[in-house]
Amino acid sequence: MKSKIDLVNNSKADRMLLLINKIILILMVLIITVPLLYVLFGSFLHPNVLLTKGMSFNPDDWTLDSYRRIFEDGTIVRGFLNSILYAGGFSIVSVLFSVLAGYALSVDNLVGKKYFMLFFIVTMFFNGGMIPTYLLIKELGMINTPWAIILPGAVSVWNIILSRTYFKGLPNELKEAARIDGASDFKIFLTIILPLSKPIIFVLALYAFIGQWNSYFNAMIYLEDQSLYPLQLVLREILIQNEVQPGMIADQLARAEIQKIAEMIKYSSIVVSSLPLLIMYPFFQKYFEKGVMVGSLK
Where is the protein found, in the record's own terms (predicted)? Predict the structure, then answer.
């Protein structure tokens, strides 16, 4: 009833603006959804149909050969488990340090807070570079170990700033009341701050997990044992193995067959690598909606 009244009270210009906004939102949804659906349906199509006719909804043109070909190799399952280990460990380390540092920087009486913030902010614009970072990882003995994927880059200054902003928005009265009752800073953090910080914790965890899940460059540099490869790097190796290079194969039929296989694997590999993120997001959505606007509050 209220929405109808508001709609009646809106001027003609307001209604026109709302209509334009709805059209823009619908177009944005289509721009995002259509490619996703194309990749999903394309992963089930026979490569001959996909390359010649394009999208087809005829059940006779559908097949599971692409998924069967991917999962025939046990490295996919191992890479999937490795990615869960790396992304999960990376998320835990990132959230732990981001929350602890953010809470410390949100305390008004922290000695040297301005210098700490300056130190953190400088690292957002300057870093050691790839070669010095590689030499550091090597000297620490983390080459060809999971730690080379989990630890480097786990502490994000941007996440620390988001945490600090969120903690500064919490009522100081809660902390003051706890101090009157004799609670220490650590107890206040565990019993009061953390239970109120689920939105920012889940948002930071989601950001860290997605970033690490889609990453393969560090694994390509620091890992030599293929049994430690994450899923993204395993799928990359599969695509490279099934990629046709110019002049590589003289037989045109063999080249066309390999091209069909590569096209078929391309779509199914995208679906396989994106599936965990699509499953996770609905569970994180309610926290994501609360925590995603933290940076715009202060």
Answer: Cell membrane
